[in-house]
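User: Hey, quick favor. My workstation is busy. Could you predict this chain's structure for me?
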Amino acid sequence: ARGRPQKMSKNTGRARGPRRLPINWLEDGATLEIVTHSPAETMLLGDELARDLPIPCLVLLEGELGAGKTTLVKGIVRGLGAAREEEVTSPSFALVHEYGAGGKVYHIDIYRVESSQELSTLGLDDMLSGSAIVLIEWGEKLGEYSGNQTVRIRLEHAGDDVRKIVVLPNCAKG
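Assistant: No problem, here it is.
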């Protein structure tokens, strides 16, 4: 029995804007639709999402090229206190970046992964068996992944820097 999911300590020491997400959005399981109007606002949303993510948690980011997946990840990683936003880059060629000392955050890009065998070499099950948050860009390529708390985030272009972001929590209760 794992008990209630932990929360990662967040020590960014930054002032944050007003809360845009409803309290208990994750536990309620309701789909959220949020519109951001700039990359900075998308990162701030990532900060806010990070406040509520349980550990372990799988976050699947979906959307076309340039939709803002990495920008949102920068905010999540920053919000978790695992790295500064400028340290977070797309792992397109490395496939996996790891951030954080105390609690681990893995950032994976599976755009170039072409087979289930190649996917199995990433060690996803090992990452999720520990106390980690795993962020996967191009999560739609993963399909349905069960056994862990999952949040699916779909990002869409809505003109210039405007993004429509749909958050679909599907987290198991702890």
